[in-house]
Amino acid sequence: MDLSEISDELFDRLVDEALEDVPPGVLRHADNVAFFVQDDPPPETPELLGVYDGVPLTERDSGSFSFVPPDTITLYKHPLIRFSEDADHLREEILVTIVHEIAHHHGIEEDRLHELGWG
What we know:
Blueprint: H1 8-20, E1 33-38, E2 50-53, E3 71-76, H2 77-83, H3 87-105, H4 110-116
Parallel strand pairs: 1-3
Antiparallel strand pairs: 2-3
Helix pairs in contact: 1-3
Pfam family, one: Zincin_1
Protein name: Metallopeptidase family protein
InterPro entries: Zincin_1, Zincin_1_sf
């Protein structure tokens, strides 16, 4: 897919649509998570589609919920576009990446995500 075909506005719309399609319950307890979009991941991980940055819920104690900045999930636009065949596939890959990163927020590791089909 040619990067020039996907405008920032279209990509943002696809992200919004994907967020609406997140399976019920997945966003539960993710109310202190901020979503961001960046064009590219760090140079050392050029094919990274998204990343969760924060403390998984399973690793927090009761005091860690107050006065902490939000965890973040960042989607990387250019690798997602390169990975996709068309706009529909891109939207699906955005959804898979969002669910994958939210799962990390819930403490689910890579192996389990692959078993569940969200790897």
